[in-house]
Amino acid sequence: MIGTGVTESRRHLPPLDGPRLRAIPATYDLAPQIQACLSGAPDYFDATEGGPAAPDAALRLVEEAEADDARRVFVLVPYVGGPAVGVLDLWLDHPDPETAHVGLLLFREACQGLGYGKETTAALEASLARAGYGILRLSVGDENPGARIFWERLGFTPVGRLDRGVTVYEKRLEM
Q1: Would the pTM of this model clear 0.90, i.e. be above it?
Q2: 109-130, pLDDT tens digit by residue?
Q3: How far apart are CA 141 and CA 61, in angstroms?
Q4: Measured CA distances, 133 to 13, 86, 172 (Å)
């Protein structure tokens, strides 16, 4: 959309739906399902935050996304029904145009190891590529070695280090 007068962060994304999960844009009505996913991943929050997810974490996540044109939060829900199994927090055109940044891809612990992360990431990559993005980026803290292994297995490579023990990963997207 370069040259159209529309900022890149307002770019419309094609659906992010995978083979088993729908990615539903987060709303205040979905905050309880988001909170259940966050609360359903206690090991992640123990490692990264030193304790459980705050009781208002989902509400804050939705509020922050609503206030930022470049941010998108999705609730990941099985096509077959049932409660949400995960959350995706995404920044568009961050830190540069044509680059998207995964702030969080999190699944309830009971739903980890089922291939949802790989499927969601593939759907995300395809959607971003169709929307004109060339790079998908994310950051992983040293306290989360499982995430590092997961992202490297999906073809992400380290491109830098930040303070506080954080590695930045990238993957070039196929157009």
Answers
A1: yes
A2: 999 999 999 999 999 999 999 9
A3: 19
A4: 10, 23, 9
